[in-house]
Specification:
CATH class of the largest domain: Alpha Beta
Largest sheet: 6 strands, mixed
Keywords: Signal
Signal peptide: 1-21
Protein name: Phosphate/phosphite/phosphonate ABC transporter substrate-binding protein
Order of helices and strands: HEHHEHEHEEEHEHEHHEEHHEH
Radius of gyration: 22 Å
CATH superfamily of the largest domain: Periplasmic binding protein-like II
Strand order of the largest sheet: 2-1-3-10-4-11
Structural class: alpha/beta
CATH topology of the largest domain: D-Maltodextrin-Binding Protein, domain 2
Helix content: 40-55%
């Protein structure tokens, strides 16, 4: 009579262990995407990559973003993302302050631009004096670049108002609610044609390191598996379609000291976040 009882105890123990393991496996791998456009568009854009990671890593994968770049940085520094995809200055911040590991970036150049209404009153940078402009939050790269550009133009104190998505920048500029708006060249190129043809690029930056994939340090031992998953996505039909649709031209390794070049922007970002 003791043997069936022992079998029952063993079965219960295995079931409990299996339930614990299953519970652990259900923790999603979180792919955090900086809010370079609306949350709805981001969730749609990154579904093919989510599916690839889920298949390759054999665990649930969840795409998340944040209300703005500043909150995204806070969440990443709080270790809430397994991969964080963000512009170079935040990538450098995450590397220095939270131990994230740089993986790769996109082949296409990243540039920030200042957009104005093609038929509006702003014909030169000097025309921005006494007006207001739009940015994507105090800690976004395009906003930081725009503020530095305005200082170089000796425009004085031009107020910067922040919006949550790049598509809102163009709409508000065209509605006359701001004299100019700062966004990325890629986001400008993705605007609907009827909006794009009504806008003019007043100024644009030199190429900077754009969106960088940063791996949370807790995945250090599995880095090769993550690299393989990203390479698989790049080689897939879904990946090629994603690169073509977003004019990104594929993935590439980071160049030597490419992230270090972002250090001046990192210092400004820390100030925004309340750091030292």
């Amino acid at each position: 009579m003791r043997r069936p009882f022992l079998k029952l105890c063993l079965a219960v123990a295995l079931a409990a262990a299996g339930g614990l393991a299953a519970g652990q496996e259900q923790r999603p791998f979180v792919l955090g995407i900086a809010p370079h456009t609306s949350a709805r568009v981001i969730l749609e854009m990154y579904q093919p990559l989510r599916r690839q990671l889920e298949t390759s890593l054999q665990q649930p994968v969840e795409v998340q973003t944040a209300p703005d770049f500043t909150e995204f940085a806070r969440r990443a520094l709080n270790q809430e993302y397994d991969i964080a995809v963000t512009t170079g200055h935040q990538a450098r911040l995450f590397q220095l302050d939270a131990g994230y590991l740089p993986l790769l970036t996109y082949v296409a150049d990243f540039k920030a631009v200042a957009l104005v209404d093609k038929n509006g009153p702003v014909k030169s940078p000097a025309d921005l004096k006494g007006s207001s402009v739009l940015g994507l939050s105090p800690s976004s790269l395009v906003t930081l670049w725009g503020q530095q550009w305005m200082k170089k133009q000796n425009l004085g104190d031009v107020p910067v108002r922040y919006v949550s998505a790049a598509d809102s920048v163009s709409l508000q500029v065209l509605a006359g609610e701001a004299a100019a708006g700062f966004t990325s060249l890629a986001n400008f190129q993705k605007l609907p044609a009827e909006q794009r043809i009504r806008l003019r690029i007043l100024a644009q930056s030199e190429p900077m390191v754009g969106r960088v994939y940063m791996l949370n340090k807790r995945w250090t031992k599995e880095r090769k598996a993550v690299d393989k998953a990203l390479a698989g996505f790049a080689a897939s039909d879904d990946g090629k379609a994603y690169f073509a649709q977003n004019k990104l031209d594929g993935y590439r390794p980071l160049k030597q000291r490419e992230l270090e070049a972002m250090d001046p922007y990192v210092a400004e970002t820390r100030q925004v976040l309340g750091g030292k």
